[in-house]
Amino acid sequence: MEAATGTSQIEAPLLDYEKEFKTVQIQARFPDGLAGWTKFLEKNLNRDLPVNNGVPAGIYTVVVSFVVNKEGVISEVQAETDPGFGTSAEAVRAIKKGPNWIPAEQNGTKVIYRQRRPLALRFLRTNSFLVQDWFHIMVLPSHETLFLQKQFLCLQNLLVGMIPLLH
Fold this sequence. Notes:
The chain is an alpha+beta fold. The chain contains 4 helices and 6 strands.
């Protein structure tokens, strides 16, 4: 009869690498990194669309999500938030025409992953002109994105309160 040693092995659960992952060790990323992503957005987003749709001064956040498969192909692009004035549809349109991404990884294996990216659109009124500027906010976990959206609302309220001072 063997004496018990008090140790046991616990087998790690097997991962299904064919399913869509919600969290990963390495997120999918744009081929040229953050600088390339920003350049792509600046080149491909129609900055005039929200202005033509009557957007008032402020900051508007669109959270877009899309699936990046194991080969880096993007699909299922959707806006999770819609601040209006055509911003969400424009963000989806631009991302759909983008290049393949570098796939996400889990345990050294390329996996299918739903990428979420918050994009912010800022409109400021100066000297009777509405100035617009798309800019990128770094990828954050969803709870931090929500915190960031609340911070933008505070900033937007502050800016809107300052608009009369800029005239």
